Amino acid sequence: MKSMVPAGPVPKGAMVGWRANAGTGGMTYELNQTYDYPDRTLTVSTVFLKQGEVWKVLGFHIAPTMKPGVAAPQGGQAPGAATVEETSPHSG
């Protein structure tokens, strides 16, 4: 993931969407934000799960999109490739 995020200060993110879901398995809430860097735009999705009165991070997803004419970062994934890191709510 580190190679997908440029070094330096993080630009102000823009909220581009959200989704809430409630069912027999509990409540989830997903926030979607974009961060505009000079060479790429990062679309970030964070999924939260409500356990009792506490919201916990269930998943975190980063999707980089390289701007036209910019080479992909070395040592990382290709532009537009997605990485998902999720932890089970049962893993503690």
Commentary on this structure:
The structure is a single chain. This protein is an all-beta fold and about 90 residues long. It has one domain. Helix content is about 0%, strand content about 55%. The chain contains no helices and 5 strands. It has a 5-stranded antiparallel β-sheet, with no helix packed on it. Strand 1 and strand 2 form a beta hairpin. The radius of gyration is 15 Å and the shape is elongated. The two termini are about 25 Å apart.
Q: How large is the count of helical segments?
A: 0
* Beta content: over 45%
User: Distance between termini?
Assistant: 23 Å
- Quick one: how many beta strands? 5
Average of the residue pLDDT scores: 82
Which outline best applies?
elongated
How are the elements arranged and paired?
Blueprint: E1 14-23, E2 26-36, E3 40-51, E4 54-66, E5 83-86
Antiparallel strand pairs: 1-2, 2-3, 3-4, 4-5
Keywords:
92 residues, mainly beta, 0% helix, disordered C terminus
Short description:
This protein has 92 residues and is an all-beta fold. 0% of the residues lie in helices and 54% in strands.
